[in-house]
Amino acid sequence: MLRLIILGSGSIIPTPSRFSSGILVDSEEFGKLLLDAGPGTIEKLRRINVNPNEINAVLITHLHIDHVSDLLPLIKIRAYGGGRLKICGPPGLRGFLDLMLRDHRLFGYLFRLGCADLVDIREFWRGSTQLDQMTLHFTNVEHFNGIAYRLELEGRSIVYSGDAIPDPNLIKLARGCDVLIHECSFPAERLVGKHTSDKDLMKIAAEVNPEILIVVHLYPEMEEKVEELVNGLRKAITGKVYVPKDMDVIEV
Predict the structure, then answer these.
(1) What's the pTM?
(2) In the chain, is it the N or the C terminus that has fewer CB atoms within a 10 Å radius of its CB?
(3) Which pLDDT tens digit goes with each residue over 14-40?
(4) Structural domains in the chain?
(5) What is the DSSP string of 106-152?
């Protein structure tokens, strides 16, 4: 059985029920992996009694603070007995981690702890790879050097958009998927930056028509319109629609 534990369903702006990006995928075949690791991820793992050293891989969509700020603490924890950690992400990930883990002007003690030797870094852009028992597909999307992922494991397919404007690459990646996890940052009339609005997502959902749609990365402005969003999405697709709060669990 596959479980998705929504550690962070919001944005960099905390609200009572949502904060920055992080999703734990818990599967029998692969074990535990993280989709992004924004601030608060490790604390929420603690709340659900998951040892950070149990994480087998982290899939990073892009290098913005609200998606990567708990990555360094996660690596440092490995220095106390966790072993190597697979970290996947877009081009630039290796340079980012080399800077953080090897440059003595920054966190030199992380290098002395051996943290640079505890990461197995893999940079992706377009294509596919095998990651242990999981087939992983990925493509670039329009959001500051961002990528989206499609996970194939236990007979299920899960697509995670990360942050992105509506993107044909993501539509192609998501076609035929069982689960689509897609951002919806703002209402259309208040859209800011390279993000997806509620009206955008309704069009995307109708085109992909996943069995399960999970909406994440809500800014406070979007939280005000959740009921309206859900009603619109349920008209757009035949599958289930979830707009989870932090710590919600969805079995897929």
Answers:
(1) 0.97
(2) N
(3) 999 999 999 999 999 999 999 999 999
(4) 3-249 (3.60.15.10)
(5) HHHHHHHTTGGGGEEEEE-SSEEEEETTEEEEEEEETTTTEEEEEEE
